[in-house]
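Q: My collaborator sent me two sequences in one message, no labels, and asked for predicted structures for both. Can we handle them in order? The first one she listed is below.
A: Yes, handling them in the order given. First sequence, followed by its structure tokens:
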Amino acid sequence: MEYIRTSIPDVVLIKPKVFGDYRGFFMETFRQSEFDEVCGHVDFVQDNHSGSSQGILRGLHYQLKNTQGKLVRVVQGEVFDVAVDIRQGSPTFGKWVGGILSAENKWQLWVPAGFAHGYYVVSEWAEFVYKTTNYYAPEWERNILWNDPTIGIDWPLVNGSLPTLSQKDALAPILAEAEVFPPGWSIEKLDME
């Protein structure tokens, strides 16, 4: 696999080696030793799978405690996937990286704890799968408004139409009003408080 650091170096794009012939294809989607070397050691504890139709936007989500790193990929269709740095004191605080993940390109994105994550469905239908480093904890789930102008995500909206959002996402606060990770935070400190 090829590991490419994005403009926010903690967020890593992973391109698998795909071996194909007349029968189909084969690829590794995860190798612990390589991942540890590039991204640092984490333990994945939960796998999730969601399906969404075109124009659905999910995000920007994170857990303030029981923080989650996410290794994300698409197994059907195409999405525009985004990570936003919400670690106060980070040189990239409030910045975002994003790109197309699809069943065709088979790319993955490593979104570590300390980031808000979201995606927008570009294709008619998409299935999105991801591993997490901590269990879902709804009491600690938080979100940030998808179109916060201070973040300025350039979502590739189909036909320029507004996305379809859950009520929770539509009512999300902007970054300036959201609970974020304080300067000097660590996963251990937050999760033990």
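Q: And the one she listed second?
A: Here it is, processed independently of the first:
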Amino acid sequence: MSDDDPWIDQTLRGQPEAFGHLVLKYQDRLFQAVFHMVGHTEDARDLVQESLVQAMLHLDSFERHCAFYTWLYRIAFNAAMSHRRRRRPTASVEQASERAGVEPSDRGDGPLETLEREEQCRQVQEAIARLDADHRAVLVLREIDGRDYESIAAILDIPLGTVRSRLHRARLELRERLQAMLVGETQQSDGL
């Protein structure tokens, strides 16, 4: 029995306030994952809200053979992918970071180190944003959300082997994109 089961049972028995406990438990974690998929704070908030409402409305269809968060994440993931398809022209990662108010943490480094770290962060975000949706999804779930392979397979409803191969390809593609960015910067600084 999961520690979410009592809240689920109470909600199903007509006590919707019990669902609030699940919302408080998972909304921040869900927001972080959705934000990395859509790249815009307001869109991520709206999608999380929409996903939580859908989860509450369809809670009776939740089969308890998987974790509640896995089921909830799947709802949010599908909403985020639908949103991305509807909104094809996407903003740059830099614009998304500005709108989100994402600022690098201050580690006490000097201005040069801070600028270098900000640029590296921007490059990684840009490279991730350019991955195709399937590769980006497994990469975000594994590297940002910290999910294990089995839960990624359950969330994306794909075989475990597919998770492994997509993650491998995503990492290779990410590495290639970052190397290309580095080569481009080197050529620019050399005046080529």
